[in-house]
């Protein structure tokens, strides 16, 4: 049995955030969980306001955090203990008065921690939260690539009367960033008119193309933000998501791809969304927890805990709204 020391901290209340008693991320020691010491910030967003089939993504962050407490914190592959870089568990963003208000709260919170020179990560919640996270990173980093791992295209301009619906999760990114879509196997016909087919990797093509990873990476700019909808995974290994689709990604091919991205590009942050926990089966919660920790391990595997961290955001870009269509003629 893996027993961890649990450290309790009280989170102060603020508008759109949750006042609660919570544990440190993965039960790490309190001195590694302080904002001024940590290189990494984790923002939970328990939002499920626009999902249209199975509800429960608002319970995702809590299930993910509970599973994280039961992981071994030594990563065999990278020979690292990335938690020693410090992980600050931020106040949960709980704004839910409207999808638009939630997106704005996520945007402002994410941007605030980027400006504090942290490696910012977000755990949802449904995929509409990514509209806010991507907007923040796009304002802070020039020539941003958004790498989306997902079963669904999520490219509708609006859905059910809102541009901040989960079905619209990456529409804005398609207009303002270099969007690369991986694992797509479900979409509406109207989304074909928005999609860049040269930068879309459909699951049925990936199954017979040994070069899809290299092709996708070759199309990325230097700065990459990753958004992972957990329904990208095959339901045989991750059934607990709102809209599971057959024919998804498997564990080691996903890690192989992500490892290459982290090695070859400057991954500036990431979010993970759409965990819809099942009280009788915790395996999906644990996969999400391991995935998050793996991605941190890849990011920091060549850095000592004592090294200074610079998230390299562009301060001259921080007040701009990059609302122009991404220029495919840029060199990268």
What does this entry look like structurally?
The chain has 332 residues and is of the alpha/beta class. The chain has a single domain (8-306), classed as Ureohydrolase domain (Arginase, Chain A, 3-Layer(aba) Sandwich), CATH 3.40.800. 26% of the residues lie in helices and 16% in strands. The chain contains eight helices and ten strands. It has helices at 60-68, 99-115, 129-140, 171-176, 203-206, 212-218, 251-264, 283-300, and strands at residues 8-11, 20-23, 40-45, 87-89, 119-124, 144-149, 178-184, 200-202, 223-229, 266-273. Strand 6 (144-149), helix 4 and strand 7 form a beta-alpha-beta unit. Helix 1 (60-68) crosses helix 8 (283-300) and helix 7 runs parallel beside helix 8 (283-300). It is globular and about 50 Å long.
Can you give the helix content as a percent range? Answer: 25-40%
- Tertiary shape: globular
Low-confidence stretches: 1-15
What is the structural class?
alpha/beta
% residues in beta strands? 15-25%
Give the number of DSSP strands. Answer: 10
How much is the radius of gyration in Å? Answer: 18 Å
Could you tell me the CATH topology label. Answer: Arginase, Chain A
Topology as a string of helices (H) and strands (E): EEEHEHEHEHEEHHEHEH
CATH superfamily: Ureohydrolase domain
Biggest sheet statistics: 8 strands, parallel
Q: What's the number of helices?
A: 8
How far is it from the N-terminal to the C-terminal residue, by CA? 48 Å
CATH hierarchy class name: Alpha Beta
The overall average pLDDT, rounded, is 90
The overall number of domains is: 1
Q: Give the oligomeric state of the chains in this entry, treating copies of one chain as homo and distinct chains as hetero.
A: single chain
Strand order of the largest sheet: 4-3-5-10-9-6-7-8
CATH-scheme architecture: 3-Layer(aba) Sandwich
């Amino acid at each position: 049995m893996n027993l961890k020391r649990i450290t309790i901290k009280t989170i102060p209340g603020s508008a759109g955030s949750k006042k609660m008693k919570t544990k440190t991320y993965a039960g790490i020691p309190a001195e590694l969980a302080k904002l001024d010491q940590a290189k990494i910030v984790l923002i939970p967003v328990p939002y499920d306001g626009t999902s249209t089939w199975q509800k429960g993504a608002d319970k995702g962050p809590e299930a993910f955090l509970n599973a994280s407490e039961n992981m071994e914190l030594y990563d065999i592959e990278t020979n690292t203990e990335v938690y020693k870089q410090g992980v600050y568990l931020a106040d949960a963003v709980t704004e839910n008065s409207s999808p638009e208000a939630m997106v704005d709260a996520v945007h402002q919170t994410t941007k605030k921690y980027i400006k504090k020179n942290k490696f910012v990560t977000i755990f949802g919640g449904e995929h509409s939260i990514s509209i806010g996270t991507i907007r923040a990173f796009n304002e802070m980093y020039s020539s941003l690539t958004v790498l989306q791992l997902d079963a669904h295209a999520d490219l509708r301009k609006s859905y059910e009367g809102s541009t901040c619906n989960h079905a619209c999760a990456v529409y804005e990114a398609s207009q303002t960033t270099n969007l690369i879509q991986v694992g797509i196997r479900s979409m509406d016909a109207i989304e074909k008119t928005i999609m860049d087919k040269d930068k879309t990797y459909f699951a049925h093509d990936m199954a017979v193309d040994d070069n899809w990873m290299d092709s996708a990476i070759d199309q990325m700019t230097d700065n990459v933000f990753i958004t992972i909808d957990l329904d990208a995974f095959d339901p045989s290994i991750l059934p607990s998501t709102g809209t599971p689709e057959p024919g998804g990604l498997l564990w080691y091919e996903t890690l192989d791809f992500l490892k290459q991205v982290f090695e070859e590009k400057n991954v500036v942050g990431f979010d993970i969304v759409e965990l819809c926990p099942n009280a009788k089966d915790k395996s999906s919660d644990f996969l999400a927890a391991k995935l998050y920790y793996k991605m941190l391990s890849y990011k920091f595997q060549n850095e000592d805990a004592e090294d200074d961290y610079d998230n390299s955001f562009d301060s001259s870009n921080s007040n701009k709204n990059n609302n122009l269509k991404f220029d495919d003629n840029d060199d990268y």
